[in-house]
Amino acid sequence: MKYVRILCAAVLAFTLCSAFTMKDKEKKAVYAFGVAASFNDSIVYYTDIQMLDSVTLDKNGFLPKRESYTYQLKNYLEYNLNKPDYTCMIYFSESKSKLEKEAVKVQGKYKKNKGMLLETIKSEVFTFTKPQE
């Protein structure tokens, strides 16, 4: 009887431990916005905050293939708006509220300079797409 209790306790402990370790990592949404500025132009373009489709951050908290997202924005500016020579940056986070605060901070830096004009690129016109694997 003593061995049956020990065996049942071991099976119960194993079941509980494996239930928590096998729990699938909860996927969080990743949000991003882009900013494009040029030394040759007084217009600074920035995108709306967008949820990136089926993207998760890597183990270090970085966005995989983030350079592809900046090139998407750069290509949009060059080919659709005929604005070459822009430097593009992407900001990303799993928290939309933190990213909204960052967007306000970045836009505030450009608004301080009275010669700079901020222009929004709406989500209806440009959206980030997941790069090919």
N-to-C SSE string, H for helix and E for strand:
HEEEHEHE
* Principal-axes shape call: elongated
User: Could you give the count of β-strands?
Assistant: 5
How far the N terminus sits from the C terminus, by CA atoms, comes to: 57 Å
Taken as a percent bin, the fraction of beta residues is: 15-25%
Largest sheet entry:
5 strands, mixed
- Helical stretch tally: 3
What is the helix content?
Answer: 25-40%
Q: Provide the gyration radius in Å.
A: 23 Å
* Poorly predicted runs: none
Mean pLDDT: 86
Derived structural class: alpha+beta
Description:
The chain is an alpha+beta fold and 133 residues long. It has 3 helices and 5 strands, in the order αβββαβαβ. It has a domain of 92 residues.
Condensed summary:
The chain is α+β, with helices and mostly antiparallel strands. Helices cover 39% and strands 21% of the residues.
Descriptive terms for the model:
3 helices, elongated, 133 residues, 5 strands, five-stranded mixed beta sheet, alpha+beta
